[in-house]
UniProtKB/TrEMBL annotation:
Residues 16-148 form the Actin-like protein N-terminal domain. It comes from the Bacteria. It holds the Pfam family ALP_N. It comes from Parablautia intestinalis. This is ParM/StbA family protein. Residues 164-275 form the Actin homologue MreB-like C-terminal domain. CDD domains: ASKHA_NBD_ParM-like (cd10227).
Length: 316
């Protein structure tokens, strides 16, 4: 698991937020990606955000897939919640922040500017989360490539040829590294995230048992590999998950994966199900189950970028 470090530059906190389709992650926190708005505070939870006269319940369920995150107002609200959670974990409620965020590999180039503007729509934000007031100044925002940022600090360890697969809830990011060096022509974003596996399991149970399996049971299986339910249901879920993982490997091979010529590095929320039901040579496959790796990587990547810029400015 990637070590947690705190990065600061000129009194500004570099704070990473991984805006996933299934979960939002920071270096210290992870919670489901969902938000519901109301004009009154919710009754049964304190896990809500109060902002500009509205109340937003956070983290109960998941959001639908939206390809361009800056076109979805909910992402901004959930980002504020993520910032609050991370600051609370650090014992802070007031801070100057340089946001470090990311986009899928193939979307960074076309969406970077709009996503940065979206995240910086308010330079000063005053809001409450879980009953605590937060006063933050968003000084700047850096948008980086998912997957690559998560492994940026350990690139020297990727000797020879590697394929890296970062399987999130909505997308899978794939890249081929040659001695730790990436190439844009060998980087892809595919709509084959864990959300697809969820649907395959749900539909398989529905077809075989004529009943709807509760969402929580499927999520527990995908997260832990065991749901403590009857053996037949467990078997059916494994069958469905296996068909999904077979699609994953077929997609990887379509993009150049050859287990005889390169090693495979699998990360993200989908790494668990691939490890459980996939067919692979364990000597040539590495699994990283730290689902906060991208958020931590954004902070490191952003800090190193800002440090280089500062050094160049001083030299100039």
């Amino acid at each position: 698991m990637t070590k947690i470090r705190d990065y600061n530059m000129n009194g500004t906190i570099i704070l990473g937020v991984d805006a996933g389709y299934g979960n939002y992650k920071t270096a210290r926190c992870c919670f489901p990606t969902s938000v519901s708005r109301s004009d009154q505070p919710p009754i049964f939870t304190r896990n809500y955000l109060e902002y500009e006269g509205s109340y937003y319940t956070i983290g109960e369920g998941h959001k639908d897939f939206v390809a361009e995150k800056s076109m979805d107002d909910d992402n901004y609200i959930i980002t504020l919640a993520a910032i609050a959670k991370e600051l609370n974990a650090r014992g802070l409620s007031t801070a100057k922040i340089h946001l470090a965020v990311g986009l899928p590999l193939k979307w960074v180039q076309t969406q970077r500017d709009s996503f940065r503007e979206y995240m910086m729509q308010n330079r000063h934000v005053d809001y409450k989360y879980a009953g605590r007031r937060y006063l933050i100044d968003i000084v700047d925002c850096t948008v980086m490539p998912q997957c690559y940022a998560a492994i940026a600090e350990s690139l020297p360890d990727f000797k020879g040829m590697h394929m890296v697969a970062d399987i999130g809830n909505g997308t899978m990011n794939v890249m081929i590294l040659n001695n730790g060096k990436a190439s844009e022509s060998k980087s892809w974003t595919v709509r084959l995230g864990v959300g697809e596996c969820f649907k395959v399991i749900r539909d398989h149970i529905l077809d075989r048992k004529a009943e709807e399996l509760p969402m929580e049971i499927i999520e527990n299986y995908l997260r832990c590999g065991d749901t403590k339910v009857g053996g037949e249901y467990q078997q059916l879920m494994e069958e469905a998950a296996k068909s999904y993982v077979d699609k994953i490997f077929a997609e990887l091979k379509a993009h150049g994966y050859n287990p005889n010529l390169m090693k495979l590095y699998v990360m993200g929320g989908g790494a668990k199900v691939v490890e459980l039901v996939g067919s692979y040579d364990s000597d040539n496959v590495t699994f990283n189950h730290d689902i906060r790796a991208n958020a931590k990587g954004y902070e490191y990547f952003c800090y190193m970028k800002l440090r280089r810029q500062k050094a160049m400015a001083s030299a100039g």
